[in-house]
Each structure stands twice: as structure tokens, then as C-alpha cells.
Request: fold
Amino acid sequence: MNTSLRLRFLILISFIAFISLGLPDGLLGIAWPFISEKLDIPLDNLGVLLMFFVAGYLSSSLTNSKIMSKITLGWLLAFSCFFTGASLFGFAVSNQWIFLILSSYFLGSGGGAIDTSLNIFASAKFSPSVVNWLHAFYGIGATSGPLILTWLFTMGHTWQSGYFFVGSIQISLGILFLLTSKMWAVKEDKTEVKQENISYRLTLQKPMVWLSILIFFVYTGLEVSVGQWLFTLITQSRSILEESAGLWVSTFWGSLTLGRILFGFILKRSSTVKVLHLVMVGIILGAAAFLIDFSNLISFIGVFLIGFSCAPVFPSMIALVPDLFGEKFAANIIGFQISAAMIGGAILPAVSGFLTDPFGWEIIPLSFLVQAILLAFFYFFLIKNLKIKVKNF
Reply:
């Protein structure tokens, strides 16, 4: 196989892999009420599962370089897919809370290894445009998860069928990685110039770095909160039928994916900072519309607007790091931002869930609006204080 054809084939497999990464995230938001009932545990325990998922994700992503020194990329991707597949089967058959927690932890471990490894490979082998599409395919997976589960419901199947189905996809992908393991070999470039090694301590001495980290904490917390709590909220508090609620969740993830595709073109013609200004306002308007709940249609539009407006925030903020703080600090700062994003994605949804006990389900849409306002405030404060560095953006 010639180099060009090989690269295209690897791009195709990578797209499929990122779809598979998004599928479990889309499943949990719909399956959780049924899991909660099966195991006789409170609905707000979803936050506990998310925290263990993130713990697993961080444990594999932070040790990725050490793992890669022991085994090849192809084998790592294969074993990680087998790991995630087995964890999804664990969700389907688990009859005990502790088993479900362990399944969530190992699902995070496998997903973190796949995500980190493919991003490292893509940054070295693929063009920036391909990397951008790569992340859009995650959204396709997250959008497809609720649709698959909703379709299975209409066919008379249970939520467990969805986990078995997606788990089987992961196992199949693991076999594909195993068969193509030699194609994933990464050759070191001896002419590569080694970047200046900047300590974490020196990086964190910049006050605005902490603010940028906080932005990722709040943003990802908001995105995950909407994705995971939307189904439970509208079925428990707003009398939306389960079949329709699944479409609401798919609309959120779908609008996020659509936004990433469209903003990829828009950002070629418009300033990154101007686009971020607009979408921050859009997130607040969407959250406010969903909270006020004038009608199902207005709330539905609010959900779409939140997802669409959230789309460019994560990748655009990552892209701005070298211009905001300088190239030599970029690697450290992006690492901190991604770690903060994973932690925020666990803590903020958990806090929202715990608040439902004393305040009721409608505290969740209020938390969406509060997080949206905080996100916009932190972003505008950051840009104002670093406006000289971003004047051309």
C-alpha cells in the first residue's frame, strides 16, 4: 500500500474511532434513569459515575507516554478498544453499584488512551483541517448514541441492548486496530527541533493562565451537564415522552457537531475572538430560553442554541493559547486546560445533580444559565486583559 493510500485509510479508521468515542457519552444520558431504577440508587448518583469515568480517563491520558514506551500505538489502540467494549458490556450486565463504578472507571481509562493516542498521532501525521474534522466525528458519535437507543426502544428492546450494540462496535474496532497495527508505526523525525522545556511552576505564575484553565473547567462542565442531565430533566420535570426526549438529546449533540463543521469554515473568514464573542452571548440566550420554558418549542430552540454556540469554544480557545501566552508556554497550558476540562466535566454535573434533592429538578436549567454567565464573564475578562496580544484575532 503506497503512503498516500495508507494515510487515507488511517484517517478513515481514525474517524470511525472518534465516532466510537462519542457513542457511550450519548448513551448514558438516556440510559441513566433506567440504570438508576434497576439498581435502586438515587438519580443524582450520576455525578459519582462521571467522576470515576474522569479518574479513569486522566489515569490513562497522563501515563500515555510511559505506556507508549512499552507497546506500539496499534496495540495500545486495540487493547483500549477491547477495554472499552468490555466496560460497556459491564454496564449492561451489572447488578451492583460497585461493579457499575468499576465499569465507568475502565470505560474512562480505555477512552482516555484512545483519545490521547489518536490526537498525538493526528498532530504528527494529519493536516490541521483533518484534525478538526476528527473532533467533529466525536460529535457524530455522541449524536448517534441517543438515536440508536431511541430506535431500540421503538423496536421493543431495552437499554441494555444499546450497550451491547455499542460494546460490540468497540470490540470490532479493536480487532481492526489489531489487524492494522503495523500501519500505525510512528517514525521519529531526527531533524525535529526540541522545544524549550518550561516548568509547570513558571507557567502557573501567570495569573491569566489560571483564568484560562478555569474557562475550560466551566465550559466542559456546562457541555457535559446539558448532555447528561437533559433527558432525565425533561422526562422527570417537564413531562416529555421518552421517545421525544431522546431526540432532544440528539439535537443537542447534533447542533454541537453541526456547529463545529460550520464554524470551521466561518473561522477562515472571521476573527476567532469575534466569533467567540458572539457564541458566548448565544450560550447565555440558549440557557435562558431553556430555563424560562415558555413552551416546548422555545425550550427546544434553546437546547439547539446552547449546542451550536458551544461548538467553537473548546477548539478555538486551544488555538488561541500560543497567541495569548506565547509558543513556549503553549504545551504546558494546553495540558492544564484539558485536565481542567475533564475535571469540570465530572464535578459540575455532579453538583447540579446533588442540588436536585433540596431544590428540585428545575435547579438544573438554572445551573446551566449560571455556568453560561460565568463562562462568558471569565472569557471577556481574559480577552480584555490580554487584548494587545489578540488584536489581530
Q: What stands out?
A: The first helix runs from residue 3 to 39.
